[in-house]
Specification:
elongated; binds pyridoxal-5'-phosphate; alpha/beta; Lyase, Ornithine Decarboxylase, Chain A, domain 1; 11 helices
Length: 371
Amino acid sequence: MNIHTASTWVEVNLETIRNNVRIMRAAAGVPVMGIVKGNAYGHGTAKVSRAIVEGGAECLGVARLEEARDAREGGVDVPILVLGYVHPERAKEAAENNATLTVYNLDLAKQLSEQAIKNGVVIPVHVKIDTGMRRLGVFAENGVEFFEQIQRLPGIKITGMFTHFPRIDEVRHPTTYVQLERFNHLIGELRSRRIHTGVIHASTSAGVLYMPEARFDMVRSGITIYGLKSTEDLPQLDGIQPALTWKARVISIKNIPAGEGIGYNHRYITQKEERIGVIAVGYGDGMRRKLGNFAIVGGKRVNMVGGMCMDQCMVNLDEVPDVKIGDEAVLIGTQGSETITAEDIAKAWNTTNYEVVNSLHARVPRFYFDA
Ligand SMILES: Cc1ncc(COP(=O)(O)O)c(C=O)c1O
């Protein structure tokens, strides 16, 4: 199978990713950790990890150890931080993938230390501080004690500390400043005790737009380097472009008489004789099983009619009479003068652009371009 014979596929422009990283790096003014969790936000971990490093990111961030392995397959040798949970018994695997792990709980850190000793490895770790997300992390007020305990454990070595802001996309929300204050307070306490913290990071993409005081030694950026918006409330950084296009092929066209039900449960009834096309994409690829979806076909935005099936969906082609079997439909991206963004789909699905691109299933082939 190649791009000309694929049913539905994703095109990723790696040069756009590199360029987005360059722009993010310049705006941040500090090193960038490129976030490649969730299959690099649906774009494909290995190739995209490499492009992000080529664009100038000094570090990568993933959620799972297997994602660190996938990123290494892209041939990158920068540090990779696993932001989420890793079972302590995977210490050796972590070392083999040269992964930095996150510690946020004393028992887990002790088990990791034991496993590291047992396997004769030293695991670099970043300490996660909970300043207000109430997810992973040591409460900021217990941070000093935690550092004192962790730094004594053999087999693990503190190389960083970080926190996470759950409301940073809500521009200048007071919660973020309260969190920043707690984080800064802890940093001050650690410094006054000469406790080594390693690299300090907190901000994600949105913070780079308006919170220079949250940059510390590094920023973690995902959504912006894919060219998507981190917040609807501020303009995107100049020059940032979406890197991903999602397409599918028109695979059938029929004139359906008036009054016929279309698709499962006949959720659409033709009003008159209608030219109905079938597109080879469905919820098994990452669309949503709901009404009100759309695509660009023949250079025009057309509505999907009837429910979304697992592998197909139907569109009304009355407005685009020249469209024929084999033509491309665009789900995300541009065709002619029409564009559908991940943000447009997010609005229609009542979710975020993060979830839209993350929903792209593994069976959808990714094709990579360099210009
Ligand atoms: C801990 C952590 N850091 C960084 C990021 C990247 O955030 P963004 O994609 O908004 O830049 C995420 C994203 O979910 C995250 O969970």
